[in-house]
Amino acid sequence: MIHHVVNQHGAFAAEMKTKKVCFVTTGATAEFRELIQAVLSPDCLRALKDEGFTTMNFQCGDTLKDFPSLMPHNILGMELNAFAFKKDGLNRDMRECQALEGQREQGLIILHAGAGTVMDAMRLGLSMVVVPNTSLLDNHQDELALELDAQNYATRSDIPGLANAIRLACLKQARPWAPQKTVLKKIVDETVGYNEDVSSRLVLD
């Protein structure tokens, strides 16, 4: 099910000259209501608006049922769309964050620190803010987020610091991923059990 929200002025971002998309994803395995709530906070919406974003797309799992109540009255003229899951994956939504001459500026993805989602975003060369889900029992997400930040692949954030992280991420140049024998690759391998054959698909086209 897709929940579509028109911006407060009744106009779609597509009517503007160019779009700039922020995609927020919480993953499919664990609910992360706090992340959705944080992105919809006045501070984060203001940060996104100040950076020129026109459109926000949310993959929010079971939190979709709460989305209307979490959405503030003032969304600063941006277009908001939300859905729970998609059977065909998130590749198309992620590509909406890529620059396309005359249509879109380079956008941003805000995501939980799930290794599979992170790798897909890196393969597309997307700017990222990675927010570990601290409700999970292990520390793999935080370990991965710290290493991504250390190697300048992403900006790590917690919930309280998200607005500042958005601004910082927009200042960074996205770093494309190519799998190597690095600390980061070791963490990914341990987290999701990638073998060399699976990892090889992450090489940039």
Walk me through the structure.
The protein is an alpha/beta fold. Helix 2 (42-50) packs parallel to helix 7 and helix 6 (140-150) packs antiparallel against helix 8. It is globular, with a radius of gyration of 16 Å. It is 34% helix and 15% strand. It has a 7-stranded mixed sheet, with helices on both faces. It has helices spanning 33-39, 42-50, 67-70, 91-95, 115-123, 140-150, 162-171, 183-192, 196-199; strands spanning 2-5, 21-25, 55-59, 79-83, 108-112, 128-131, 155-156. Mean pLDDT is 82; it is low at 8-16 and 192-205. The protein has a single domain, classed as 3-Layer(aba) Sandwich (Rossmann fold), CATH 3.40.50.2000.
Key traits:
205 residues; alpha/beta; seven-stranded mixed beta sheet; 9 helices; 7 strands; Rossmann fold
Distance between the termini: 32 Å
CATH secondary-structure class: Alpha Beta
Please summarize the sheet with the most strands.
7 strands, mixed
User: What is the number of strand segments?
Assistant: 7
Shape estimate: globular
Spans where pLDDT lies below 50 across 5 or more residues: 8-16, 192-205
Number of DSSP helical runs = 9
Gyration radius (Cα, Å) is 16 Å
Strand order of the largest sheet: 1-4-3-2-5-6-7
Helix content: 25-40%
Q: Can you tell me the CATH architecture?
A: 3-Layer(aba) Sandwich
The helix/strand class is alpha/beta
**Count of folded domains:** 1
Q: H/E series, N to C?
A: EEHHEHEHEHEHEHHH
Oligomerization state of this entry? single chain
What is the name of the CATH topology? Answer: Rossmann fold
Please state roughly what percent of the residues sit in beta strands, choosing from under 5%, 5-15%, 15-25%, 25-35%, 35-45% or over 45%. 5-15%
User: What is the residue-averaged pLDDT?
Assistant: 82
CATH superfamily: Glycogen Phosphorylase B
